Amino acid sequence: MKSLLGNLIIVSPASATIRKFRYTPKAIVTIGVACLMCFGVVVALCAVPKLVTDLEQESLETENQQLKVTNRNQQLKVETIDSELSNLEAQSERIKELIDTE
Fold first, then answer.
1. 47 secondary structure, DSSP code
2. Most CB within 10 Å of its CB: which of 24, 62, 77, 88?
3. What are the backbone dihedrals phi and psi of residue 31, each rounded to the nearest 5 degrees, phi first?
4. CB 21 within 8 A of CB 8
5. In degrees rounded to 5, what are phi and psi of residue 71?
6. What digits encode the pLDDT tens for the residues 12-58?
């Protein structure tokens, strides 16, 4: 028979089933090794150098700001053209009305 380090018995008040977990030294070692491996993977992933350096990050932020300014300027141009177009359409309508009345 296997030597046991301990038992964990779980009794649910909602059901009549009883769950019993037996802990052997081999199971404890296996869980410990798995935890250490997971910790090692996390440490290895955190130790990977940054994909973007600080200088590249700064240049990307500058470029992003310039693109936002360019985009805003384009929006203002579109709004100006739209207002000019509506003025021209209004003048066209007035000219048509003058032609029709004569």
1. T
2. 24
3. -65, -40
4. yes
5. -65, -45
6. 888 778 888 888 888 889 999 999 999 999 998 888 777 778 888 89
pTM above 0.70, yes or no: no
Output Rg (C-alpha) for the chain, integer angstroms: 37
Sequence-distant (≥ 6) Cβ neighbours of residue 95 within 8 angstroms? none
Q: Please name which of 77, 96, 98 lies closest in space to residue 88, comparing C-alpha atoms.
A: 96
Structure tokens at 29: 């070692």
Pairwise CA distance, residues 96 & 98, whole Å: 5
Contact criterion met (CB below 8 Å) for 27 and 8: no
Contact call for residues 42 and 59 (beta carbons, < 8 A): no
